[in-house]
């Protein structure tokens, strides 16, 4: 097989197929381990995701690309088609009653499950994703095997990037009415939703009955000036960080302050939920105290940033 970028020459069908396989492999590694297939409601691991792709019209179209394409044209056509096919949407929400877990939906369609509050929310999320032409959707409730420590570690370490590279994050505010303000929602008090808000490039807020918040029919609520002002007031986070946040150690004090009034169900998660915001990768030890988890996080931040003044701020 010739290498992409090697210059103009005719390409064979085997060249194209191998190029497609490599591009799919590269793409799959950057997206969640499991995704819900919105047309069928079935949870798919990476092998199943690839299988769906290989049975798709997009795959057949790529296989029939003309042999006259040069390397750059071939690479562009393949990458664009694969990126579009594997676009996915993520759910940001507060956990409620009857949330379906991985073991509850494996080998089933979510559309066939009974209507607990959690299942209904998952169905509505997938239906809204499908209406916006997304074949794939991800929810933290059922797309992670929480009984597998290695997978849980990987998921927590990857979650910021999963939200960042999703094409849309759907925020469901279960406690906000169609005429209410989202500023009072508990969504703004939870630890994990801070990461989800900052990581997501495109967001749409929905009220309790799945209507767009404030009836603002935009493709991205972060791009609406009035709603962005509301977001800034509700979070205390400047608009430039809400729309263009970069994970890392810059202004660590502010990043800790944003999280200081938030809470998590498991105390140690208050530290784990910040790993992505600071771009740190530390071991997950469920059962450790919140103080120990935060201590490890602060130690890493101080080690990398050199800002020992954080200790004074935390003490206060």
From TrEMBL:
InterPro entries cross-referenced by the UniProt entry: HET
Domain Heterokaryon incompatibility span(s) in chain numbering: 88-179
Domain of life, source organism: Eukaryota
Protein name (database record): Heterokaryon incompatibility domain-containing protein
């Amino acid at each position: 097989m010739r290498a992409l970028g090697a210059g103009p020459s005719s390409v064979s069908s085997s060249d194209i197929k191998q190029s497609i396989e490599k591009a799919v492999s590269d793409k799959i590694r950057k997206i969640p381990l499991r995704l819900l297939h919105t047309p069928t409601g079935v949870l798919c691991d990476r092998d199943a995701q690839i299988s769906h792709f290989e049975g798709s019209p997009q795959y057949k179209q790529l296989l029939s690309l003309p042999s006259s394409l040069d390397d750059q044209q071939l690479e562009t056509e393949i990458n664009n088609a694969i990126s579009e096919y594997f676009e996915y949407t993520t759910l940001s929400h507060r956990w409620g009653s009857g949330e379906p877990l991985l073991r509850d939906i494996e080998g089933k369609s979510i559309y066939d499950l009974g209507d607990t509050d959690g299942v209904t929310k998952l169905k509505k999320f997938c239906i809204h994703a499908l209406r916006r032409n997304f074949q794939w959707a991800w929810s933290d409730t059922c797309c992670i095997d929480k009984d597998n420590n290695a997978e849980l570690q990987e998921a927590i370490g990857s979650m910021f990037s999963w939200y960042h590279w999703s094409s849309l994050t759907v925020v469901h505010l279960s406690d906000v009415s169609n005429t209410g303000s989202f500023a009072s929602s508990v969504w703004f008090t939870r630890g994990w939703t801070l990461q989800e808000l900052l990581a997501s490039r495109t967001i749409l807020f929905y009220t309790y009955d799945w209507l767009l918040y404030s009836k603002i029919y935009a493709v991205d609520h972060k791009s609406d000036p009035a709603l962005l002002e509301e977001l800034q007031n509700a979070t205390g986070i400047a608009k430039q960080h809400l729309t263009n946040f970069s994970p890392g150690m810059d202004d660590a004090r502010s990043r800790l302050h944003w999280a200081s009034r938030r809470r998590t169900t498991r105390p140690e998660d208050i530290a784990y939920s910040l790993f992505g915001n600071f771009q740190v990768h530390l071991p997950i030890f469920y059962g450790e105290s919140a103080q120990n988890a935060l201590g490890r996080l602060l130690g890493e931040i101080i080690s990398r940033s050199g800002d020992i003044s954080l200790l004074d701020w935390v003490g206060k």
